[in-house]
Specification:
Blueprint: E1 6-14, H1 18-36, E2 40-45, H2 50-56, H3 62-70, E3 73-78, H4 94-101, E4 106-111, E5 131-136, E6 149-151, E7 155-157, H5 164-180, E8 186-191, H6 197-210, E9 217-222, H7 223-232, E10 239-242, H8 244-258, E11 267-269, E12 274-276, H9 295-312, H10 315-333, H11 348-361
Parallel strand pairs: 1-2, 1-3, 3-12, 5-10, 8-9, 8-10
Antiparallel strand pairs: 4-5, 4-11, 6-7, 11-12
Helix pairs in contact: 1-10, 1-11, 5-6, 7-8, 9-10, 10-11
The chain binds nicotinamide-adenine-dinucleotide.
Length: about 375
């Protein structure tokens, strides 16, 4: 952070709907900083993504990595276009490369429906869902140093990697979060330890680390059963920690329970760096139509403010995070603001305008 309480933010609009939700979020962040006072932002736009790859042959250029490394935080919208692929058939995934580059092992994905947004589950207890999925984000089935192989037309393989150092940091992160967040104080290991050695190892380390956190309960569930719990009795979950691929899938289920991808924020956190980005992708099916719901991006920006505030001891950044969340809650609270993804009329501009207007009014 610069001496004048200015946070330098590496800003990656990326692809598809990315640019549509980035600029207005930047504007809201500038406005909330001015409203709260005591801190500000220095924006560093960064190029990366599938469209960039199409022009330049690389999806994440060195100069963008450098800018991100020097920044206080990284705010990213979405990257990837399904028709832009490498020779082996895979897409470019610079948003995942950033996690490896900066050791962002903890993918934090809160599942907390916004009051006033149409509930997906009929059970009234679903209004009180408030839990966090921690997705391990630098190894598992995505481990970059154990790339898949393909043997001609006969066979293709992938390798799952679970290591002790990453597990220890990840589980400590999850237990600490459960300790701090004021929920039931319970961490659930979501794994498949009945079938895979890697998960038996994972679970062993999980219970070892649990011993260091008095007052936080530890339990476990197989991923298949846990998927059912997320739908049948999600109010019983507090913090769930899981492998990369499982977390990828389960967090989309969590997003659906909040109303859709446009409502689900996330953070990828490491020891030094962090990326904040909505759970969703570049949504090429709605790009350019003004239909994207920017709420997930706004809430990811609020997570960034919380993280910056905690890291730099900035009370003001924490206050700004709460103000942004309250503005979102109030904008949707009356039930009149219904986004396109839920069959309503509110597109990107309408949601931003509503949040901006409430942000100007809420106490900070
Ligand atoms: N973190 C990332 O950058 C990230 C994450 C997932 C997918 N991707 C990439 O994004 C591209 C599209 O992937 P996909 O279609 O599987 O997933 P997606 O999340 O982009 O879209 C899935 C569905 O959710 C809808 N949706 C997503 N975000 C929305 C929003 N803000 N408002 C309203 N509706 C929204 C889309 O219209 C689509 O119907 C692919 O290239 C994929 O690799 C990137």
């Amino acid at each position: 952070m610069k001496s004048n309480n200015t946070f330098r933010i590496a800003l990656f609009p990326g692809d598809g709907i990315g640019a549509e939700i980035t600029e207005p979020t930047r504007l809201l962040l500038d406005e909330v900083a001015a409203k709260v006072g005591g801190f500000g932002f220095d924006w560093a736009p960064c190029e990366a993504g599938a469209a960039y790859y199409r022009k330049h042959g690389t999806a994440l250029p060195d100069h963008s990595i450098r800018t991100a490394r020097e920044a206080d935080a990284i705010l990213l919208a979405a990257m990837g276009l399904p028709d832009v692929r490498q020779a082996d058939g895979r897409e470019m995934t610079p948003q995942i490369d950033l996690r490896f580059e900066f050791g962002l092992y903890a993918g934090v994905r809160p599942v907390k429906p916004i009051p006033g947004v149409r509930a997906i589950l009929a059970d009234p207890r679903a209004h009180d869902i408030d839990y966090v999925i921690i997705r391990e984000s630098i190894e598992g089935l995505f481990a970059p140093y154990a790339p898949g192989t393909r043997d001609g037309d006969g066979e293709a393989r992938e390798t799952m990697v679970i290591t002790r150092p990453v597990c220890e940091k990840l589980f400590d992160f999850a237990f600490k979060l459960a300790q701090e967040r004021g929920g039931e104080k319970k961490v659930t290991s979501v794994d498949k330890a009945n079938v895979f050695q890697a998960f038996a190892f994972w679970r062993e380390i999980f219970y070892e680390r649990a011993k260091g956190f008095d007052g936080v309960a530890a339990d476990h569930a197989y991923v298949d059963a846990f998927a059912m719990t997320m739908v049948q009795k999600p109010w019983t979950i507090d913090v769930a920690v899981t492998e990369n691929m499982f977390g990828d899938i389960l967090s989309d289920l969590g997003a659906a329970l909040m109303g859709g991808m446009g409502y689900a924020p996330s953070a990828d956190i490491g020891d030094e760096h962090a990326v904040f980005q909505p759970c969703h992708g570049s949504a090429p099916d709605i790009a350019g139509k003004g239909l994207a719901n920017p709420t997930a991006m706004i809430l990811s920006a609020a997570m960034m403010l919380d993280w910056l505030g905690a890291k730099h001891g900035s009370r003001e950044a924490g206050v700004a995070a709460s103000a942004m969340r309250r503005a979102v809650d109030e904008a949707f609270g009356g039930g009149q603001l219904v986004t396109c993804e839920l069959g309503g009329k509110a597109g990107t501009e309408a949601v931003f305008a509503a949040v901006r207007e409430t942000l100007a009014r809420v106490d900070a």
